[in-house]
Design brief:
The complex is a heterodimer of chains A (256) and B (152). Chain A is α/β, with parallel strands linked by helices and 256 residues long. Helices cover 43% and strands 22% of the residues of chain A. Chain A is globular. By secondary structure, chain B is α/β, with parallel strands linked by helices. Helices cover 43% and strands 16% of the residues of chain B. A 5-stranded parallel β-sheet of chain B has the order 2-1-3-4-5, with helices on both faces. Chain B is globular, with a radius of gyration of 15 Å.
């Protein structure tokens, strides 16, 4: 069949676009940029421009490895030319680390070639749809990446396979609390109690908790009161293209 | 088939948003999903149904259709039976997927290999119509109108 599939379009040069969404850290009541999350979008003009559709399709096709590599190389090319004052968070499926035992050397080579210090990179792991999560390849890759100075984050914590066992396996530097737990916490004491408990847990194991999906001022204030200081969401900034973030002083307008 | 054709099929009535703008479709017309591996056919259907008052998306693979159906809402799915060659039956899998995940969505199955047994199986799984291919587009449009009465 000679017709072009959606996967072909994704893997074409320019098929993947990268947006950046700030992760905000509140220090002494001032909002500062903790890091920038790189978010992949599928080919323009297709439904895969919506990230849920893009990655749902990729997982159903079992093509996480090649698409993760495409997203990472695209993001690294853009980050290379962005200010070196920021740290960047890059998303990755756990399946890629399991199925590509030499991922660590491939990735370190990519960022070194782009002259990016490993210390500026956070690899944010998602375990969505990974039914058999625990593997030696995964642990080995994580250890090598950590040794090289790359920080590890666990995404979607609190839902599906992103659970306490995975924290013990991966020992992440950062823990992304899933938006289903965060959004609306300002008006839901049960959600807030869960988050407060997890914040205490994160403090005790030396991990930073990040609250994802903060969209309301009431949520922000409630999170502040229980000691959550790192957040992300539309309340602060939507995902934006690199040129909008850095050429229109958008960050300064938001966070000065 | 060139990449340009594929791109055009996808973007015919979706504006091409730049990457920095969040995509959110404002759908006011009944929306349908065409699942067809032959892009010349899906292009013709998309063109015709778009000017007939429908919002139209196209998928050419089972996984693509499932990803769309899991994240977007459709009034009707028009699916071909064979997406990966003669003898394949992805259209039946789509019927089952829709019935399990999108109970309000109607389904029209198209097939060049219609038999009584196939029609029975498709209806057993929950198809609303089973049509032979080729089929005049005006007939399919009338069925879509019938199935979407009362839809947005």
């Amino acid at each position: 069949m000679s017709d072009i599939t959606l996967l072909d379009m994704i893997l074409e040069p320019g098929g993947i676009g990268i947006l950046f969404q700030p992760i905000v850290e509140i220090i002494d009541d001032k909002k500062t940029i903790h890091s920038l999350e790189c978010l992949a979008r599928g080919p323009v003009g297709t439904n895969a421009e919506m990230p849920n559709v893009l990655f749902d399709y990729v997982r159903r096709k079992n093509e996480e490895v090649i698409v993760d590599q495409t997203c990472l190389t695209t993001a690294i090319k853009i980050i290379k030319d962005l200010p070196s004052t920021f740290d960047y968070s890059l998303n990755l499926h756990t399946r890629t680390l399991k199925e590509m035992p030499d991922f660590h050397s491939w990735f370190i080579e990519q960022i070194k070639r782009a002259d990016i210090s490993p210390g500026r990179i956070v690899l944010e792991l998602t375990a969505v749809n990974d039914v058999n999560i625990h593997s030696d390849e995964l642990k080995e890759n994580i250890e090598r990446l950590r040794d090289a100075g790359v920080r590890i984050a666990l995404d979607d914590f609190g839902v599906k396979q992103s659970n306490f066992m995975l924290i013990m396996d991966l020992q992440p530097h950062l823990l992304w609390l899933d938006r289903q737990i965060v959004t609306g916490c300002g008006k839901d004491p049960k959600k807030l109690f869960v988050i407060e408990t997890l914040q205490n847990f994160a403090d005790k194991i030396g991990t930073c908790l990040i609250a994802k999906g903060v969209e309301e001022e009431t949520d922000y204030q409630a999170l502040r009161q229980i000691g959550v200081n790192i957040m992300q969401g539309f309340l602060f900034a939507p995902p934006l293209a690199g040129e909008m973030l850095f050429e229109t002083s958008y960050l300064q307008d938001c966070f000065v | 088939m060139s990449l340009k054709i594929r791109f055009f099929v996808q973007s015919l009535d979706n504006q091409c948003f730049p990457h920095h703008i969040a995509v959110g479709k404002m759908k006011t017309k009944p929306n349908i999903l065409i699942v067809e591996d032959e892009q010349t056919i899906s292009f013709a259907m998309k063109s015709y149904f778009s000017v007939s008052g429908f919002e139209v998306d196209c998928a050419m693979e089972l996984e693509e259709a499932q990803a769309f159906l899991s994240n977007l809402s459709y009034s009707v799915v028009v699916a071909d039976l064979c997406l990966t060659g003669i003898g394949s039956e992805e259209g039946l899998e789509i019927i089952t997927f829709v019935r399990q995940n999108c109970p309000k969505t109607k389904i029209v199955l198209l097939t060049a290999y219609k038999t009584a047994a196939l029609e029975f199986e498709a209806r057993r799984r929950g198809a609303n119509f089973v049509l032979s291919k080729p089929q005049p587009l005006v007939i399919i449009k009338d069925i879509l109108n019938e199935l979407t009465i009362g839809a947005n």
